[in-house]
């Protein structure tokens, strides 16, 4: 097991280095010259050169990258170009809003997807299965910004029952008010997740229902409901570990589109405005954070899988022979 | 089976971890700069007058000199004041109550309003101005437009607590404009040490000393709440609270406005203009000149344009029909009017008799053929974040097709548009486009504003000849009003003759407000200089 963990950890480190290098390269080669943001027409050429040298922008891309990486390893993600404030505290300031929204959306997705996926698998090829599957395909196909706007038009503009924007009504800090503001973005975010989860759970349920232990349970006289929720459910949900691991990144990093559409003050909108102003320390921090969480989420999922299914662990070990 | 149960447990822990994150939010909330006391204050009571303004995103700080976006400008305006604002009719004074310019045009004496105080009771003095200038130099790592003019240093003298003198090395008309963009910061809050600003949380915390009509009483995750000052030197605002709140993108702002969530918004389409006019029982409309010129730039370094002659440029200018462009892109002359000059009517140097260009398709076709323009493919870029620019691009494409020119349109967001549009000639970006539309706003007062950067090819190489550049420099350095006007009349004509920038439209800033909101047109400068004393919410 330790060998497996070490191998996975090494993979995480390599992937993180690659993510950081390529994201740095993308920002470096993006159109325009970053140094233009620091100099002004009143400066002499010498002063411009000094400023550029102070910022290290006169160095090659690899030199700049290693200087950035050295600081990042020590926890210094730099200072935002647009507001001259340290990047990390700004992330921390916006993190709660993102986690509340994304966490709620994830929980809502699971609460909806588990019964629907199970039922769809259990009633394979029935009209109910076809209906749920059709809805799932629609959910996967609908662009989130479009669905968000649709919800805003219906519930905020026409029915006027829910707020369209923001996280609070000014002057109202009750949990209920935040809940009301969260409903539309949460549903928008969940629609895609629910659709994907349903497909996974349905497929697993169909597979599990043909396993011998189900036959045994039936032979013992267990009811269909008991078989489905007591035996099949546990095994069906295992692949969800992977999905949740993959979603760990989005939980913390938010959603560019949904946060922007609903004016949600999370990390997604922060990163979006940073991209708009080419604030590369913020962009780099965002990419690194989301990359790190994605890799770590998968890493945890891999470990859990290895723990649950020894064949994976053994396969990993024998693969090295 | 036990292993599976354990795995499920671990998955549960992962989920609990997520929930724990949610729980952690309340801690962070506690650490955010707000108190229960201040929250209670904002609860709407009957009789409270609150003016709510939309922001596209939540600025990280309310530092007045960091006005990097329209949202930040809007957020800062109720709490920090400029010294004065340039308007079509002269200067509109705020923290300063007088600006004297010597006859030779070299000495600017600024008098600060005796009554102007910070919200913590400290007087606004020249120390605050010097402190803010020093911060600019520190932040830029070199001289700024306040400290250097025409390559020479500006001598800054503190005459007394309320009087400051700026002695220019040479006459520079635009120095008025420079001073108008100055927002003093409170020196006493930083022990007069500008190096303390960047590491400070001062401008992120309620209670910061402000110079405007309001103080910051709350900073929430998605909004700022400002409360009217009783000791504001220009009077007491009738609106007791101003709320700046973040609104989502797309049409969310309009929905929020129609639901009464915000008090005003800008109208940029003829359809919306008509709609809100028809509902005059629910809304008030305001129209103020934006002092903005939208123009079409021909790129002297463009892949095709660099190979063509002045006749080719003239063919493009003659093929364009401004009236059709206004009609299609704006749909109403209340939103925009065809421009005749590269100077706006809000500038005193504007020449209303400047002929501009009128469509002449036959002549354009002839010139296109003789100059080799016909059959060419030009790359056109525009800023998709600017209202109506996509429609302008579409019309220009159609109109140039009439003379046999194919236009390939490339839409860019702000972050990619400006690095391309203003790329200096030695950079690859400068050679990636032939045509582009852009605009410059807040062109008011007695100087030429941003136009100088174009006529002198300083901001980027706009293609102007040494003659036009020289005349512009000369006009900027001319103190005599009559001579200056004659020079600018000549420049406006010559600039158009050279056919590099085509004046498209002068736009209006049209706003719609809730019916109970009045006085948005109380200021002649928009959108950043709305005079909050003139606003009333019944």
Automatic annotation (TrEMBL), chain A:
<keyword id="KW-1133">Transmembrane helix</keyword>
<feature type="transmembrane region" description="Helical">
    <location>
        <begin position="283"/>
        <end position="308"/>
    </location>
</feature>
<feature type="transmembrane region" description="Helical">
    <location>
        <begin position="179"/>
        <end position="198"/>
    </location>
</feature>
<feature type="transmembrane region" description="Helical">
    <location>
        <begin position="134"/>
        <end position="159"/>
    </location>
</feature>
<keyword id="KW-1003">Cell membrane</keyword>
<dbReference type="Pfam" id="PF00528">
    <property type="entry name" value="BPD_transp_1"/>
</dbReference>
<feature type="transmembrane region" description="Helical">
    <location>
        <begin position="99"/>
        <end position="122"/>
    </location>
</feature>
<dbReference type="InterPro" id="IPR045621">
    <property type="entry name" value="BPD_transp_1_N"/>
</dbReference>
<dbReference type="Pfam" id="PF19300">
    <property type="entry name" value="BPD_transp_1_N"/>
</dbReference>
<keyword id="KW-0472">Membrane</keyword>
<dbReference type="InterPro" id="IPR035906">
    <property type="entry name" value="MetI-like_sf"/>
</dbReference>
<keyword id="KW-0812">Transmembrane</keyword>
<dbReference type="GO" id="GO:0005886">
    <property type="term" value="C:plasma membrane"/>
</dbReference>
<feature type="transmembrane region" description="Helical">
    <location>
        <begin position="236"/>
        <end position="263"/>
    </location>
</feature>
<feature type="domain" description="ABC transmembrane type-1">
    <location>
        <begin position="95"/>
        <end position="305"/>
    </location>
</feature>
<protein>
    <submittedName>
        <fullName>ABC transporter permease</fullName>
    </submittedName>
</protein>
<comment type="similarity">
    <text>Belongs to the binding-protein-dependent transport system permease family.</text>
</comment>
<feature type="transmembrane region" description="Helical">
    <location>
        <begin position="12"/>
        <end position="30"/>
    </location>
</feature>
<keyword id="KW-0813">Transport</keyword>
<dbReference type="GO" id="GO:0055085">
    <property type="term" value="P:transmembrane transport"/>
</dbReference>
<dbReference type="InterPro" id="IPR000515">
    <property type="entry name" value="MetI-like"/>
</dbReference>
């Amino acid at each position: 097991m330790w060998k497996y963990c070490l191998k996975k950890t090494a993979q995480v480190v390599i992937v993180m280095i690659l993510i950081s290098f390529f994201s740095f390269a993308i920002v470096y080669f993006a159109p325009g010259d970053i140094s233009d943001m620091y100099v002004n027409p009143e400066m002499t050429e010498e002063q411009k050169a000094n400023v550029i040298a102070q910022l290290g922008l006169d160095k090659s891309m690899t030199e700049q990258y290693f200087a950035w990486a050295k600081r990042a390893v020590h926890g210094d993600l730099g200072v935002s170009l647009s507001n001259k404030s340290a990047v990390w505290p700004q992330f921390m300031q916006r993190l709660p809003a993102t986690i509340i929204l994304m966490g709620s959306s994830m929980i809502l997705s699971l609460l909806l997807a588990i019964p629907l996926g199970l039922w769809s698998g259990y009633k394979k090829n029935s009209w109910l299965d076809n209906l749920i599957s059709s809805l799932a395909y629609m959910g996967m196909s609908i662009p989130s910004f479009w669905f968000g706007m649709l919800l805003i038009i219906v519930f905020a503009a026409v029915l006027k029952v829910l707020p369209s924007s923001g996280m609070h009504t000014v002057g109202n800090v009750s949990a209920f008010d935040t809940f009301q503001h969260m409903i539309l973005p949460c549903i928008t975010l969940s629609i895609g997740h629910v659709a994907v989860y349903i497909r996974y759970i349905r497929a697993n349920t169909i597979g599990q229902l043909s396993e011998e232990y189900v036959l045994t349970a039936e032979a013992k006289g267990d009811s269909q409901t008991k078989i489905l929720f007591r035996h099949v459910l546990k095994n069906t949900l295992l692949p969800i570990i992977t999905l949740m691991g993959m979603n760990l990144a989005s939980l913390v990093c938010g959603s560019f589109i949904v946060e922007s559409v609903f004016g949600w003050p999370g990390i997604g909108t922060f990163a979006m405005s940073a991209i708009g102003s080419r604030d590369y320390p913020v962009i780099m921090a965002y990419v690194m954070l989301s990359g790190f969480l994605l890799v770590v989420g998968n890493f945890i999922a891999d470990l859990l899988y290895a723990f649950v299914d020894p064949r994976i662990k053994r396969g990993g070990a024998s693969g090295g022979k | 089976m036990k292993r599976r149960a354990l795995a499920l447990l671990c998955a549960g822990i992962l989920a609990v971890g997520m929930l724990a994150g949610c729980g952690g939010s309340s801690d962070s909330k506690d650490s955010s700069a707000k108190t229960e006391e201040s929250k209670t204050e904002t609860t709407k009571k009957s009789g409270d007058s609150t003016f709510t303004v939309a922001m596209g995103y939540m600025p990280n700080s309310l530092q007045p000199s960091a006005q990097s976006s329209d949202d930040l400008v809007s957020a800062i305006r109720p709490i920090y004041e400029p010294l004065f604002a340039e308007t079509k009719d002269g200067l509109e004074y705020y923290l300063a109550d007088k600006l004297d310019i010597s006859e030779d045009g070299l000495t600017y004496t600024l008098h600060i309003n005796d009554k102007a105080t910070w919200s913590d009771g400290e007087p606004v003095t020249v120390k605050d101005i010097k402190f803010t200038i020093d911060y600019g130099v520190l932040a830029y790592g070199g001289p700024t437009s306040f400290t250097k003019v025409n390559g020479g240093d500006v001598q800054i003298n503190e005459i007394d607590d309320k009087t400051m003198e700026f002695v220019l090395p040479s006459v520079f008309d635009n120095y008025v404009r420079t001073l108008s963009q100055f927002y003093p910061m409170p020196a006493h809050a930083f022990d007069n040490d500008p190096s303390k600003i960047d590491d400070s949380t001062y401008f992120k915390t309620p209670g910061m000393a402000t110079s405007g009509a309001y103080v910051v009483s709350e900073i929430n995750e998605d909004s700022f709440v400002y409360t009217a000052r009783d000791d504001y030197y220009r009077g007491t605002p009738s609106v007791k609270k101003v709320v700046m709140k973040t609104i989502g993108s797309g049409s969310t702002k309009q929905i929020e406005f129609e639901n009464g969530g915000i008090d005003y918004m800008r109208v940029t389409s003829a359809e919306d203009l008509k709609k809100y006019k028809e509902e005059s029982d629910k809304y008030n409309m305001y129209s103020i000149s934006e002092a903005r010129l939208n123009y079409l730039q021909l790129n002297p370094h463009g892949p095709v344009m660099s190979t063509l002659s002045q006749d080719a440029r003239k063919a493009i200018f003659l093929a364009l029909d401004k009236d059709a462009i206004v009609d299609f892109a704006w749909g109403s002359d209340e939103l925009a009017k065809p421009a005749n000059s590269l100077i706006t009517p809000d500038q005193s140097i504007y020449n209303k008799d400047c002929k501009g260009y009128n469509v002449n398709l036959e002549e354009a076709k002839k010139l296109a053929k003789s100059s080799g323009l016909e059959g060419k493919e030009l790359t056109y870029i525009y800023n998709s974040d600017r209202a109506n620019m996509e429609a302008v691009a579409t019309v220009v494409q159609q109109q140039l097709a009439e003379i046999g020119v194919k236009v390939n349109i490339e839409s860019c967001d702000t972050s990619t548009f400006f690095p391309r549009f203003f790329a200096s000639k030695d950079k690859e970006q400068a050679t990636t486009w032939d045509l582009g539309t852009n605009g410059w706003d807040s062109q008011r007062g007695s100087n030429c504003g941003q136009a100088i950067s174009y006529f002198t090819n300083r901001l980027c190489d706009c293609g102007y000849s040494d003659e036009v550049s020289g005349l512009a420099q000369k006009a900027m350095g001319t103190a005599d009003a009559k001579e200056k006007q004659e020079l600018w009349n000549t420049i406006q004509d010559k600039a158009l003759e050279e056919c590099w920038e085509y004046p498209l439209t002068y736009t209006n800033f049209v706003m719609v407000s809730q019916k109970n909101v009045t006085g948005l047109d109380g200021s002649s400068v928009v959108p950043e200089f709305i005079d909050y004393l003139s606003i009333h919410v019944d």
